[in-house]
């Protein structure tokens, strides 16, 4: 201000260096603000990730434990095969009333008279109906067991399991609860005696689906997902890599290849359910492949994964410095030799990373599988990729639709299993990248 | 009078050296763009021929026509005749792989494969089937590294990565790699431009020694280097070959005004 005034009056007051007003303070402030925004964004993301993991894990970790009842059971001939007809008619062993054996054994343990019908009915509610299958399988595989008393482990019923894990609100009026006070008393007694206990839930990993939550497992879904991954890997990796090598190294750059390029990029963005429709129309309706089969699912997921793999592979190929290609060509290597001896090995980490990420996407994909019928109720583990099956995310979807408390727990448990697989795959991708990373 | 006589004698001597490669009316187009205009240039056996000229005048382009590396560039077209020992190298019957085994190349930036030193040198002999046994291969590798003056520096770490060497060592490794295929001609495109003066001196010395066994064509932007390593020099300007002459004559008494100007540093 003073300067201007004095200049106006024709006098130069000071020979001070020109003032450069570039707003250093403002710049620093802007930088700080920007850093803060960044941190806030990351914190926001982390909070939600944490909430997600917390809800899933806190609800689901109990699914890995299952309440079991272990007690000696008398395989009474009178109940299983009263007419002693099993030699001539093996069917009697299939249809015998096995739950009765468990009920009687439990009643005896708890000291309940065989005339106390209401109490016996309550005892029947303690163990899972899957005990029928457990005992039947024992007897069918070894009929000589009839007449003996053998210790057997059967699953507790879903309600008892939930109650034993403390998931029921016991302050609620007994009438509107799924477990009676009497049953709770027995549970405590049995637990004290070591008859009833929580064990690792192997059934979750080996059993097929079941309408009884305590017996429902991910076995079918795991095998189905395994088939899917295998098919996707075997088909999409070679096809994707071959297509990428052709497009990147051999194809002339013209309108047609530009068009192909644009289409591949667009295909990567096509909603997955559209691939499901495509699979339904082409593989099932046109080619006549069976519904619900992992083969069809694998083909559909391959189509879905291919663009991802092609894009990743082309990027990896492009990242190999041209000087490596010149070096090999200059030595008299053919184009094929140049690619397979030098370019491809250098691009491999990128290709594998892309493939694993593509596979991880495919592993978590649900919508297209719903359309091709992999959402069926399947109790038996599929022996081949042509047998009906489900997949992990579909199983989660199905269980999430069930109302029972025990299914809520299993849904979260299944999510944990799926997340674990995804984390392992992503770790694998990171490790591969680290392991093979090269500088030039 | 005497001076003219010696000069004539020298020229005669040089002219008796057999021609290894001959370029006749060579023109190169990148798409619609013409990069070389009817270049006529001879490469003599066991001679170092330097290509000089300002940037973008087509030195590298011409060099690449000699082993058909231009084939790898999209839209690049070569016309005219180029022969190696009298045979047309652009003849459709010629196998480009075989040609490149006979005419090797060393690039501007050292570009060893990100593999071991041994693998770098043995790669060429292996794909061309030059060694039948491991022992033979070992011998080829050792001999090539010896010739590139690198053996003593790397003999204890043959199985370490070639990219871990210094820039100058990497470039000599690339020369060893080219030499291992036993080419007849070695093309070098500004092989020292990425190197420090000491490494440059080593490579120049190496070029001197290699001349006994190989025909060398080297592109350089350094007049001094051309003067130091070459016997023949060709000067390019805007895609034309301006002058091709004995190096001594070129640097003392060039025929063309443009050469004179360039050497005096008046353009480029
Ligand atoms: N791959 C290419 N595609 C298109 N034009 C090129 C290519 N390589 C070189 N040119 C052009 O050809 C001319 C000669 O280039 P170059 O031979 O590399 O020159 P120098 O090696 O003498 O510097 C330049 O004008 C350059 O732009
Ligand atoms: Mg150049």
Structure described in brief:
The complex is a heterodimer of chains A (440) and B (268). With 440 residues, chain A is mostly helical. Chain A folds into 2 domains: 61-201, no CATH class; 219-436, MetI-like (MetI-like fold, Orthogonal Bundle), CATH 1.10.3720.
Order of strands, main sheet of chain B, comes to 6-7-8-3-9-10
The count of DSSP E runs of length 2 or more, i.e. the number of strands of chain A, is: 3
| Unreliable residue runs of chain B | none
CATH level 3 topology of chain B: Rossmann fold
Helix-strand topology string of chain A: HHEHHHHHEHHEHHHHHHHHHH
The strand count of chain B comes to 10
Task: Tell me the quaternary state.
Answer: heterodimer
CATH class division of chain B: Alpha Beta
Percent helix of chain B, as a range, is: 25-40%
Bound molecules: adenosine-5'-diphosphate, magnesium ion
- Largest interface between protein chains, with number of residues from each side: A-B, 22 and 26 residues
Provide the CATH architecture of chain B: 3-Layer(aba) Sandwich
Tell me what the CATH architecture of the largest domain in chain A is. Orthogonal Bundle
Question: CATH H-level name of the largest domain in chain A... which superfamily?
Answer: MetI-like
- Over all CA atoms, what is the radius of gyration of chain B? 19 Å
The first-level CATH class of the largest domain in chain A is given as Mainly Alpha
The CATH superfamily of chain B is: P-loop containing nucleotide triphosphate hydrolases
State the helicity of chain A in percent bands: 55-70%
Strand content of chain A: 5-15%
- The overall pLDDT average of chain A reads 88
Instruction: Characterize the overall form of chain A.
Output: extended
């Amino acid at each position: 201000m003073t300067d201007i005034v004095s200049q106006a009056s024709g006098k130069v007051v000071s020979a001070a260096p020109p003032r450069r007003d570039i707003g250093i303070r403002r710049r620093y402030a802007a930088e700080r603000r920007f850093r803060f925004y960044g941190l806030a964004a990351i914190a926001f993301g982390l909070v939600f990730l944490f909430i997600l993991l917390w809800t899933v894990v806190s609800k689901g970790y109990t699914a890995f434990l299952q309440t079991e009842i272990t007690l000696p059971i008398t395989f009474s001939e009178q109940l299983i095969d009263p007419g002693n007809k099993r030699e001539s008619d093996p069917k009697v062993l299939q249809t015998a009333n096995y739950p009765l054996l468990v009920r009687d054994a439990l009643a005896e343990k708890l000291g309940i008279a065989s005339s106390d019908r209401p109490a016996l009915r309550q005892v029947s509610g303690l163990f899972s109906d899957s005990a029928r299958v457990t005992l039947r399988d024992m007897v069918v595989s070894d009929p000589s067991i009839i007449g003996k008393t053998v210790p057997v482990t059967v699953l507790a019923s879903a309600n008892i399991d939930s109650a034993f894990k403390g998931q029921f609100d016991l302050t609620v009026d007994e009438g509107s609860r799924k477990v009676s006070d009497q049953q709770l008393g027995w549970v405590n007694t049995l637990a004290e005696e070591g008859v009833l206990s929580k064990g690792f839930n192997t059934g979750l990993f080996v059993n097929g689906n079941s309408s009884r939550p305590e017996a429902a497992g991910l076995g079918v879904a795991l095998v189905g997902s395994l088939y899917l991954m295998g098919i996707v890997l075997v088909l999409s990796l070679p096809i994707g890599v071959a297509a990428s090598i052709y497009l990147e190294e051999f194809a002339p750059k013209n309108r047609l290849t530009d068009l192909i390029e644009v289409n591949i990029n667009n295909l990567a963005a096509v909603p997955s359910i559209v691939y499901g429709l495509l699979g339904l129309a082409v593989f099932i309706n046109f080619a006549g492949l069976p519904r619900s089969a992992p083969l069809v699912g694998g083909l559909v997921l391959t189509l879905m994964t291919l663009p991802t793999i092609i894009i990743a592979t082309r990027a990896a190929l492009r990242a190999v410095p041209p000087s490596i290609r010149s070096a090999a060509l200059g030595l008299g290597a053919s184009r094929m030799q140049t690619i397979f001896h030098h370019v491809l090995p250098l691009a491999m980490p990128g290709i594998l990373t892309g493939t694993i990420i593509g596979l991880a996407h495919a592993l978590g994909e649900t919508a297209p599988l719903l359309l091709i019928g992999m959402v069926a109720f399947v109790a038996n583990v599929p022996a081949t990729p042509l047998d009906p099956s489900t997949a992990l995310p579909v199983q989660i979807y199905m269980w999430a639709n069930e109302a029972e408390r025990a299914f809520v727990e299993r849904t979260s448990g299944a999510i944990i299993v799926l997340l674990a697989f995804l984390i392992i795959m992503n770790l694998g991708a990171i490790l591969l990248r680290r392991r093979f990373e090269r500088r030039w | 009078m005497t001076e003219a006589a010696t000069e004539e004698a020298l020229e005669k001597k040089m002219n008796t050296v057999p021609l290894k490669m001959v370029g006749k009316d060579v023109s190169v187009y990148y798409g619609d763009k013409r990069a070389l205009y009817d270049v006529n240039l001879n490469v003599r056996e066991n001679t170092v021929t330097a290509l000089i000229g300002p940037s973008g005048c087509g030195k590298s382009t011409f060099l690449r026509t000699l082993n058909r590396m231009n084939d790898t560039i999209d839209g690049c077209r070569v016309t005219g005749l180029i022969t190696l020992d009298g045979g047309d190298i652009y003849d459709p019957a010629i196998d480009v792989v075989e040609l490149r085994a006979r005419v090797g190349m060393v690039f501007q930036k050292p570009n060893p494969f990100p593999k071991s030193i041994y693998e770098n040198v043995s790669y060429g002999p292996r794909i061309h089937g030059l060694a039948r046994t491991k022992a033979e291969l070992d011998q080829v590798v050792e001999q090539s590294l010896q010739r590139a003056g690198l053996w003593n520096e790397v003999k204890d770490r043959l199985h370490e990565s070639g990219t871990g060497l210094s820039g100058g060592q990497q470039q000599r490794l690339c020369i060893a790699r080219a030499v291992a295929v036993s080419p007849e001609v070695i093309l070098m495109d500004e092989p020292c431009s990425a190197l420090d003066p000491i490494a440059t001196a080593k490579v120049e010395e190496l070029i001197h020694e290699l001349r006994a066994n190989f025909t060398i064509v080297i592109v350089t932007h350094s007049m001094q280097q051309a003067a130091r390593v070459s016997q023949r020099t060709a000067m390019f300007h805007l895609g034309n070959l301006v002058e091709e002459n004995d190096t001594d004559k070129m640097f003392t008494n060039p025929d063309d005004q443009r050469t004179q100007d360039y050497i005096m540093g008046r353009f480029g």
